[in-house]
Amino acid sequence: MGNCGTREESAVIAAHAQVQQLQTFQPAGRNSALEKKHNRTFSDTSDASACRNIEDAKNISIYTNVIAFTLFELETITKSFRSDYVLGEGGFGTVYKGYIDENVRVGLKSLPVAVKVLNKDGLQGHREWLTEVNFLGQLRHPNLVKLIGYCCEDDHRLLVYEFMFRGSLENHLFRKTAAPLSWATRMMIALGAAKGLAFLHNVERPVIYRDFKTSNILLDSDYTAKLSDFGLAKAGPQGDETHVSTRVMGTYGYAAPEYVMTGHLTARSDVYSFGVVLLELLTGRKSVDKTRPAKEQSLVDWARPKLTDKRKLLQIIDPRLEAQFSVRAAHKACSLAYYCLSQNPKARPLMSDVVETLEPLLGSSRSTANEGLSVVPISHGLLPDYGMHHRRLTPNVAVGCRASPNAKCSPGAAVPACRVR
């Protein structure tokens, strides 16, 4: 998508006058009828008429506490999408910082936000935008990034999130200018991310995140980890189903091997991805690093054989930690990573078990910190980066994230209601 701020002012005013809001959420029984009635191609949904027939529901959001913003409002809070407001760029598009308050709309709480703008020429499209609205519109958890609102106006698709002050985990682990994260902070981040995945896996119909990686784990000011970017999330199997068959999507280096080979997706696929991220936290190395010797480019291939060897195990721990951690805790964390990375999906633990394993490690980390190993402060000069810099896995036959023929600007059409067990 081009920078919306470059449009002529008259065009902005005209767009503002054409604002259409999303319709009220319809029960599942009516969705199929709606899909038949509005059978559109992706180009149709990107057309100016795509949202025009939708019931005007100004100031009414389909999900509790989710706001339907106008394009004009989002241009206002990002100063017409100014370049110096850019937080990052990824497959979806560009993310800008902004600030909402009563000057934007009466009744709005003063709050810093991140505004993600769909890139119409990018690999991710309307369907992924809709997926994010549907999942994050229903789901609320301390370890999931909060969706503040959305915008569906003409061919514009935007999402508004809570602002995460410390940006992505990827930046703090791999940006050369970043101060190294302490062991205690790494375990706290691992536990928070694990709780987010465990929550998703335990709603009434499990949600498979499908793109768990360091760039999608955002950190708040107190290093609370929150999962972001739900564009590839998928409703999991139900009843007697053992898996969901789907086109292979995700990121190289993080995707579970059985999913890549068969397209069979389960919650254990997320567990494998968690194992990769835990390994990155332990080693300080990227999941795939082409700058390293051939045998060390794949982190899993290089590290996994060493995870159960106590003589070699400590050799792979990030040297920037300077041995300021409990050896016993390191052994347990490495053992957990080993089981998460099992080639046999059934041998991997549930995310609820992962949480139970990590919680004592966080306690021991805090104890160690109290003995003088405090959390290393992060550089205040770092800007949060909401970008995704890894290569996405896409099917060979076509771009995997274009909208389906029935895609519409109507959240609720594709995702079942989520209730915690």
TrEMBL record:
PROSITE patterns attached to this UniProt entry: PROTEIN_KINASE_ATP (PS00107), PROTEIN_KINASE_DOM (PS50011), PROTEIN_KINASE_ST (PS00108)
Enzyme class, spelled out: transferase
One GO BP annotation of this record: defense response
GO MF annotations in UniProt: ATP binding; protein serine/threonine kinase activity
Keywords assigned by UniProt, alphabetized: ATP-binding, Kinase, Nucleotide-binding, Plant defense, Serine/threonine-protein kinase, Transferase
Binding site for ATP: K116
Xref: InterPro entries: Kinase-like_dom_sf, Plant_Ser_Thr_Prot_Kinase, Prot_kinase_dom, Protein_kinase_ATP_BS, Ser-Thr/Tyr_kinase_cat_dom, Ser/Thr_kinase_AS
Domain of life: Eukaryota
Alphabetized Pfam families for the sequence: PK_Tyr_Ser-Thr
Domain Protein kinase residues, every copy: 81-362
EC number: 2.7.11.1
Family stated for the protein in its record: Belongs to the protein kinase superfamily.
PANTHER family cross-referenced by the UniProt entry: OS01G0588500 PROTEIN-RELATED (PTHR45621)
Protein name in UniProt: non-specific serine/threonine protein kinase
Organism: Iris pallida
